[in-house]
Amino acid sequence: MIELHYWPTPNGHKITLFLEEAGLDYEIKPVNISAGEQFRPEFLAIAPNNRMPAIIDRAPADGGEPVSVFESGAILVYLAEKTGKFMPGDLRGRKTVLEWLFWQMGGLGPMAGQNHHFVQYAPERIPYAMERYVKETNRLYGVLNKRLEGRAFINGDDYSIADMACYPWIVPHERQQQNLDDFPNLKRWFTAIAERPATVRAYEKGKAVNTQPTVNEESKKILFGQTAATAPKG
C-alpha cells in the first residue's frame, strides 16, 4: 500500500498518473495547501520542504520499515524502480528518461510556476516579469515539441515517468498563455496522454479531493512570500 500525501496540483497529478498506470494500491491523504496543512508536524516529518506530494511506502521492496519519499521527481523514480515500470532497463533509455525528468523538474515546472504566479496571482501586475515567464514557458514548449518530432513519447515508443512529469504542467497551457496549435508534436502527445484511461482516472481522483481553486485571497498569505523566519512551523 502506498500512502499518498497529495493535493490536485501539477506535481500532485504526476504521482496519481503513475499509480493509476501501474495499478498500485494507494490511499490518498489530502494535504490542503490552501489551508496550510503542509506545515503540520506529521507532514513535515516526511516532507521537510513543506511541499507536497510525498509518499509512504508501507511495503518497500527490502521488506523493512516503511519508506517515505518527498519531491515528485524522486517519488517517480522510486516508484519506477519499485515496480520495474515506466523506466527503461537499458542504459541509454534510462539516461534519456532521467534527462527529461530533470528537465521538467529544473525547467518546465519552475518556469511555468512563475508564469502562473505573475500572470494569475501576483498582487501587482509587473509587465517585465509576466513577459519574461510567458516567453520562457513558450521556449520550453518549443524544446519539448522538437523532442517529440517523430516520437510518440519522450523516450520514443515507450510511455515513461518523463511523460508523466511533463504532462500535468501542460494541462494549464491556456493559463500560461500558450497555444498548443503552435506546437503540433506536443499537441499530438498531449492529446494521446489525455485520452489514456489512467490519466482520466487520475484527474477524477483529483476532482474528488478538491473542486475549489487552490489559490484565493486568503490562501495567498499561506502560499506566497514565505521565508525561513515567517513560514509556519506546524
From TrEMBL:
Pfam families: GST_C, GST_N. This is Thiol:disulfide oxidoreductase. Residues 90-223 form the GST C-terminal domain. It comes from the Bacteria. InterPro entries: Glutathione-S-Trfase_C-like, Glutathione-S-Trfase_C_sf, Glutathione_S-Trfase, Glutathione_S-Trfase_N, GST_C, Thioredoxin-like_sf. SUPFAM superfamilies: GST C-terminal domain-like (SSF47616), Thioredoxin-like (SSF52833). Belongs to the GST superfamily. Residues 1-87 form the GST N-terminal domain.
